[in-house]
């Protein structure tokens, strides 16, 4: 056991006599060495003086064995009940910060011992807070299959320490950068969403325990933004999802961040396994000189963004980010590690000085450079610690006043001229060594292409200042900071000029910019999302330019969480509609709500987070939720004038893609309205209407509510042409008339359409009656030859009337969606079933011997291809996509959606798919085609 007094090698000078006296009075019986130390510390650091005043009793014993006292605090971090944990950890932080601060000022502990103690407590605090958060979820039954004992080892979740915490280099006022992951293989697929939700809640609870500022202060400011796509993903994500992100979208700065990554809390073994899987992403097989340019660009962007370039002026100089600062040494080390770490595993170390030592040993940098930079790094970190421990401030800047330098010099037991001279020398030498490295490296042949900046059309860039979003001084100022980074992102596009034009269109349509630019400044990851959107999808970009506030939802953390499904969406919409009293305000609110969810689905799709089938189901959930939420609102408003619906009410019946619950980003809603007045002749209200007229006007009111252009635009286009007698019939049909028409007058094509009918909203008993009627109609026996003859004739008419709009038209034309759906509906009609699921209906066509099993499988595969294309193209354009309007970003999106690599592969794949399906369908219906009808091939 070594006492603090026996380890003192230096002592801060007295700066403020009154504070020195206050500190000394706390320990009247302390040895002279301790008395001098606490007096110097208290006189220079109000923060340490405050800690000594709070922890006087604890200090008496801790002075006898400072290392042991700190270790005891670390070991007992979680040794209290959950309701006491917050206070206990804050007390622990005070004690660790105080003793490490005194040992640091006294020269008793090295830099590594100081940062190690701070990091060990951060690990212990994170573990204690995580365990408490997990136990709370387990007690509530939210983590399937887990017991409270599992919480002690993470219950399948791991917290990765990043940055300084990962390298065991924490300073006094560091944020702790964490990435929270869970091992999805620990749970059944059916339990995945429940587990993910529980882990997100546990993460938030852990972060709150550590981060929240209470009367006792905070433990550690916690930053969760280093996770994949932090602006748009939950705070805890599945390891598999993280792996996919890094494999496809990971960037150089993220590779550099993972050099220091370390499992710190939770399931450490799972964390080690994840880092092992991620190794190929971080450490490339080949020498990676491109990483130098990326790091150089990052350094320059930080300098430009922070305004830290130019010569060194000590007053207010940033010791971390400024010229010659800590970050330059870290970049120097990490970039060299990235270049060669793929070939040499010895270079894969976390610590900065440790990394430089290995680089020197492996002759990647001269040993004297490593020794010099390591010495400067230790000195810089020491100065940074002194600045931070004055008032526990998250700062890296040197004082701006003479008094401030006097205080700093007293803390370091140096005179001011010597301190200034030492700082200037070290900062300049660091800059010279690291800047020379970056400047020389970028001239390497391997990096020559990376160093050439794309030159954009100045006329386009120059006109931005005239756009509405940049007309305010604040908007222009914020954009000036963002502009270099945005241009750099655009320059990395496959076709930069094309990307610039897309961004120009977005920026020109942006009515105001301060809000969006502020969000992008605070959350740089959103810039990547923005460039992706504007480059690939004009429809999403147009929406975003008019509704930049949607990024608030992105940042909120739920934007990329679990899809809530239809019933939860209805509840959400109902809640926001009930908050509005005015009918028109409700309609506008409904539009805003729906468009935000619509935007979310589109972004998920664009980012490859959901596949085409899921996209279709989510758009359908949203449309159905809108109809279910809005229909009662329209009825209430209509009833104010004309009384409540006479009889049993009316049902909205989804037809086509809505009935099949599979929509695209640009789908209309095919509907019919069926009502039952139950022999009630008219409504009972201020202005009564005959029942038939009442339901016709109520339907028109619903159509208007959906389609009227308001401040937030339209909700959906509505198509009522599938009602009995089409456009010649009434917009609302009575149940009796609907039955009479379907049983005696409807054409075969109308029964084909009925195979996809599905009741969306209305009175439960009436919906059941309508559903039973549809089943009754479909169950009627049919003449096979007559039915297929009608189908063949209809196919021929469609081929003539609806010609395909090119290779990207997945809907119209032989062998495409409409063609395959028609055959599937025919099979369902012959079998007396529904065709809402086309893949199942193709099984009916097979069972009815219309096609063979092999042919059915080919048609299913082609249908999935066509649907993937239809979903993707409708996200890119609300109409049929023209090949000459498809940008490079859009083409990449199409290729990814259909799982091909090149445009040539995509064209060949589509052409072959269309031909295969068209041949099968033509052969299946060949015997039923009249010569007068012709044929569709």
UniProtKB/TrEMBL annotation:
Entry's Gene Ontology molecular function annotations = [glutamate-ammonia-ligase] adenylyltransferase activity; ATP binding
Any Pfam family:
GlnE
Q: Which InterPro entries match?
A: GlnE, GlnE_rpt_dom, NT_sf, PII_UdlTrfase/GS_AdlTrfase
What residues does the PII-uridylyltransferase/Glutamine-synthetase adenylyltransferase domain cover? Answer: 304-438, 809-923
Q: Where is the Glutamate-ammonia ligase adenylyltransferase repeated domain?
A: 62-275, 530-769
Per the record, the GO terms for biological process are: regulation of glutamine family amino acid metabolic process
According to UniProt, the name of this protein is Bifunctional glutamine synthetase adenylyltransferase/adenylyl-removing enzyme
Which Gene Ontology cellular-component terms appear in the entry? cytosol
Specify the species: Sulfitobacter pontiacus
Tell me the keywords, alphabetical order.
ATP-binding, Magnesium, Multifunctional enzyme, Nucleotide-binding, Nucleotidyltransferase, Transferase
């Amino acid at each position: 056991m070594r006492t603090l007094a026996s380890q003192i090698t230096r002592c801060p000078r007295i700066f403020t006599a009154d504070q020195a006296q206050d500190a000394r009075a706390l320990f009247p019986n302390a040895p002279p060495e301790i008395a001098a130390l606490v007096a110097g510390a208290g006189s220079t650091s109000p923060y340490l003086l405050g800690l000594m005043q709070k922890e006087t009793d604890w200090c008496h014993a801790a002075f006898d064995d400072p290392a042991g006292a700190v270790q005891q605090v670390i070991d007992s971090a979680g040794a209290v009940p959950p309701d006491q944990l917050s206070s206990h950890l804050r007390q622990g932080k005070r004690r660790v910060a105080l003793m490490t601060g005194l040992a640091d000022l006294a020269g008793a502990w090295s830099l590594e011992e100081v940062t190690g103690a701070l990091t060990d407590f951060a690990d212990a605090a994170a573990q204690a807070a995580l365990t408490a958060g997990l136990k709370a979820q387990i007690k509530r039954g939210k983590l399937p299959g887990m017991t409270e004992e599992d919480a002690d080892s993470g219950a399948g979740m791991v917290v990765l320490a990043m940055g300084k915490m990962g390298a065991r280099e924490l300073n006094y006022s560091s944020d702790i950068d964490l990435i929270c992951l869970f091992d999805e293989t620990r749970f059944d697929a059916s339990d995945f969403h429940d587990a993910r939700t529980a882990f997100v809640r546990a993460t938030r609870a852990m972060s709150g325990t550590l981060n929240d500022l209470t009367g006792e202060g905070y433990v550690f400011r916690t930053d969760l933004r280093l996770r994949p796509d932090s602006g748009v993903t939950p705070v805890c994500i599945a390891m598999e999802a993280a792996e996919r992100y890094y494999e496809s979208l990971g960037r150089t700065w993220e590779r550099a961040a993972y050099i220091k990554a370390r499992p710190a809390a939770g399931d450490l073994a799972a964390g080690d396994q994840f880092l092992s899987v991620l190794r190929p992403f971080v450490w490339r097989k080949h020498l990676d000189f491109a990483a130098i340019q990326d790091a150089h660009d990052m350094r320059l962007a930080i300098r430009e963004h922070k305004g830290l370039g130019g010569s060194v002026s000590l007053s207010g100089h940033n010791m971390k980010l400024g010229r010659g600062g800590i970050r330059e040494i870290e970049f120097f080390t990490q970039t060299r590690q990235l270049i060669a770490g793929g070939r040499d595993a010895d270079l894969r170390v976390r610590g900065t000085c440790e990394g430089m030592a290995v680089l020197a040993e492996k002759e990647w940098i001269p040993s004297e450079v490593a020794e010099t930079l390591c010495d400067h790094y230790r000195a810089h970190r020491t100065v940074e610690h002194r600045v931070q421990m004055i008032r526990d401030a998250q700062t890296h800047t040197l004082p701006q006043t003479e008094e401030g330098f006097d205080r700093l010099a007293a803390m370091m037991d140096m005179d001011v001229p010597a301190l200034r001279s030492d700082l200037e020398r070290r900062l300049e030498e660091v800059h010279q060594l690291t800047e020379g490295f970056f400047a020389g490296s970028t001239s390497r042949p391997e990096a020559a292409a990376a160093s050439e900046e794309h030159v954009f059309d100045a006329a386009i860039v120059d006109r931005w200042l005239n756009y509405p979003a940049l007309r305010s001084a604040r908007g222009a100022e914020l954009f000036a900071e963002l502009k270099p980074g945005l241009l750099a992102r655009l320059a990395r596009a496959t076709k930069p000029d094309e990307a610039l034009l897309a961004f120009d269109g977005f920026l020109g349509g942006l009515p105001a910019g301060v809000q969006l630019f502020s969000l992008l400044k605070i959350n740089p990851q959103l810039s990547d999302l923005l460039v992706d959107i504007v480059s690939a999808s004009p429809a999403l970009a147009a929406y975003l330019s008019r509704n930049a506030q949607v990024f608030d939802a992105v940042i909120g953390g739920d934007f990329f969480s679990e899809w809530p499904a239809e019933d939860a969406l209805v509840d959400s919409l109902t809640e926001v509609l009930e908050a509005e009293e005015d009918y028109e305000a409700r309609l506008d609110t409904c539009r805003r709500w729906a468009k935000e969810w619509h935007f979310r689905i589109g972004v998920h799709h664009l980012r490859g987070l959901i596949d085409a089938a899921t996209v279709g189901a989510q758009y359908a959930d949203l449309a159905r939720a809108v109809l279910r939420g809005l229909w009662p609102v329209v009825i209430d408003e209509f009833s104010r004038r004309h009384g409540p619906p006479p009889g049993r009410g009316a049902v909205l019946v989804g037809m086509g893609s809505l009935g099949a619950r599979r929509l695209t980003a640009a789908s209309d809603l095919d509907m019919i309205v069926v009502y039952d007045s139950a022999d009630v002749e008219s409504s009972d209200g201020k202005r009564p209407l005959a029942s038939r007229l009442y339901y016709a006007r109520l339907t028109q009111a619903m159509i208007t509510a959906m389609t009227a252009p308001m401040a937030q635009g339209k909700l959906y286009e509505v198509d009522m042409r599938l009602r009995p007698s089409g456009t010649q019939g009434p917009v609302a049909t009575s149940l009796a008339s609907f039955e009479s028409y379907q049983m005696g007058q409807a054409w075969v094509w109308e029964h084909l359409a009925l195979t996809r009918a599905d009741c969306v909203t209305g009175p439960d008993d009436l919906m059941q009656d309508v559903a039973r009627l549809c089943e009754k109609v479909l169950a009627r026996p049919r003449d096979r030859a007559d039915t297929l003859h009608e189908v063949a004739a209809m196919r021929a008419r469609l081929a003539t009337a609806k010609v395909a709009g090119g290779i990207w038209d997945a809907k119209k034309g032989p062998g495409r969606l409409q063609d395959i759906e028609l055959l599937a509906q025919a099979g369902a009609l012959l079998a007396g079933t529904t065709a809402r699921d086309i893949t199942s209906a193709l099984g009916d066509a097979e069972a009815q011997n219309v096609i063979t099993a092999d042919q059915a499988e080919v048609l299913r595969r082609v249908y999935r291809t066509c649907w993937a294309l239809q979903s993707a193209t409708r996200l890119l354009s609300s109409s049929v996509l023209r090949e000459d309007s498809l940008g490079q970003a859009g083409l990449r999106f199409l290729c990814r959606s259909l799982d091909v690599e090149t445009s040539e592969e995509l064209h060949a794949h589509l052409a072959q798919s269309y031909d295969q399906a068209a041949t099968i369908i033509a052969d299946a219906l060949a015997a039923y085609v009249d010569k007068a009808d012709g044929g569709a091939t």
